[in-house]
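anyone else get weird line breaks when pasting these?? whatever heres mine. first is seq + tokens for prot A
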Amino acid sequence: MNQAEFNALCVAPSCTLRDALLRLEATARGFLMVLSEAGQLVRTLTDGDLRRARLSGLDDATLVCELPAQLPLVVHEDATASAVLESMDRHQIDHIPVLDAQGHPVDVVFRRELSQRIWLSSPHLGEEETAFVEEAFRTNWIAPLGPHVDAFEREIAAHVDVGHAAALSSGTAAIHLGLLLLGVQPGDTVFCSSLTFVGSCNPILYCNARPVFIDSEPCTWNMSPQALERAFESARQENRMPRCVVVVNLYGQSADMDALLPICERYGVSVLEDAAESLGARYKGRASGSFGHLAVYSFNGNKIITTSGGGMLVSNDAALMARARKLSTQAREGARHYEHVEMGFNYRMSNVLAGIGRGQLRVLDERVRQRRRVFERYQQALSDITDIRWMPEPEGYLTTRWLTCFTLAGEDATARCDALMRSMERHSIEVRPVWKPMHLQPLFQNAPYFPHANGFDVSRQLFETGVCLPSGSNLSEDQQDRVIAHLRRVLSQPEARRALV
């Protein structure tokens, strides 16, 4: 519902019953909101109220204010979708006004919206997966390992033009193994992007190592070369060089590898590329995930392709990948019996899930095109809202737009983002803030952090003013229109802005 449609539901107490009936028929929403001169909600008015007024002998010229007083059923701005639905069920109604702290109506929620939730990034399965899964069942290859695992590894490696791949139980498991393969030991230091999901850096703690967080830079939202340079210089002065650098490719876009890799090479430190969110993205003609000594992809349920849960470790180093496979299968030695001389992990992907992944991989390029079309439609529909700043895509980059993200400009941006997200949640539309940076997380409160520049904490600013929109490749145009309508109403209308801030 846009602002004009919302305004059409509002009438004054001096409105006649005839005019109210005409307005009900014109709006076709089943109710009106009666507002005082100060804009506060006095009551709601339904076609049932008008019928009862007629039956009691009131004529068309009767004013709405002459009707018997009736307290409106309402919710307030902090109400969640579940709370709104509970109120509707309790009072057996299908619509409910939302009031601000001063009693002004700022929104209306309808029951049908709550039954049609729009997800941020839901799994999108096709027709190919079924055949591979059926083959796994038919041949009884259900347990970890099997022909689909081998084939999925080969196909991923070929798709991203990397020599070797190991299919694992999750992207986090892949990062953990990657750190171990690069020699991370207890007490070591690991540099890591701060603006990321905690799965990028929890494995540093698994290794009993020490994370040092690196800020983002504005033009890609990924690791800042300036901050990385200062972190290395500080480490050199302390004689505590990192064992490796975890560079995260955020929201489906590669980091600026031409700027970051030479810094790491100059100090002789390996790069673990966290491409969990960016399978299908490219940087200057090369696949995201093909730059680090090791790289990681995720196939979690919300990723651009999914195996429901799973990950992949890739590298051009054959010896490292052979060791990855050993460690991921409990580090079993090559004996007839179960022989173990070192600690291993149960990190391998099952043959069934690998079959799903093989089917998903066949539509990866189309999924990228679909998500980019979702972004382009948002961008075009909201182009007149001048304080939206979309996540940049520099020249030479091809981002998958795994999630469509933007920030808001202006001094009140944080409050407006919060109000926007609460409004979308009331209407059963899943949106999220940009990742809360790791250096702001209580878990890592004592970890060192290097901002992009003195006094310029880019990742904090992105978190405080950023929003991620529904972006799935299976998002219909009708669903996207619903998201756009809510965004426009909240962000573009002066009345809505006043109420939100």
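and prot B, same format (seq, then tokens)
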Amino acid sequence: MALKDLVADRGKITEEMIEKIIADYIRYDPGTYEIVFTRAGMALGNDAKVLVMLVAIVGWKYVTDETRSVDTRPAALEALTGIHGGSLRPTLKKLKDSRLLAVVDGHYSVKVANLEAIASTVAGEKALAPAKRTAGKADKIAKTLSPDEQATIQTGQTSRRKSVVPIRASLDRLVKDDFFSEVRTLPQVLAELHERAIIAKTTSLSGPIADLVRNGKLKRKKVINGNKEIWGYRAA
């Protein structure tokens, strides 16, 4: 076995890591080519907010077939993140000195090789927020409950975690149901999943559906959608 046989699909790994970092904090608007923060994203500290926005910009290539250059100079980032310039510039310098950001011709970007470190940085800030403030109160409440009541709460939490429907299994179901008997685009696949009460995002579909193409279950070709070409998928 050659060492190159041990190399995973870099594009797939990168997309999954990007989704892991930004899923709770941003939403894409392909129609206007804008990225907006969710309520959780707005609550992030300046370091995490900058990192999440710049990671999301890298993610555009997995969301749309057409990618555009995005201005990431400080003045533009101030508008994108809502961080005042007096606070933004020290934040950018700190992140650059920490080797989490690179700057070329005044434009800031994340280093894709550092996505793991960026994920840890963002997750670390998230973990610090409500946990320490609510742990004491939660413990006090738990002590007032009977063992049966505590078990019921734990069972409910486990059930909610198990209720998440895996995207890959859902796509396999669409294949078996002959949904791909005609050419389908990603927006059509997304709409069908939503009709089946399976909540997904475009960013979570591209990797699994590409696997179906590589596995020979689907084939793809370019189709015209409006004024641009996008990938369409059909049963092989």
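btw re prot B: The longest helix spans residues 147-162. Confidence is low (pLDDT under 50) at residues 126-134, 158-164.
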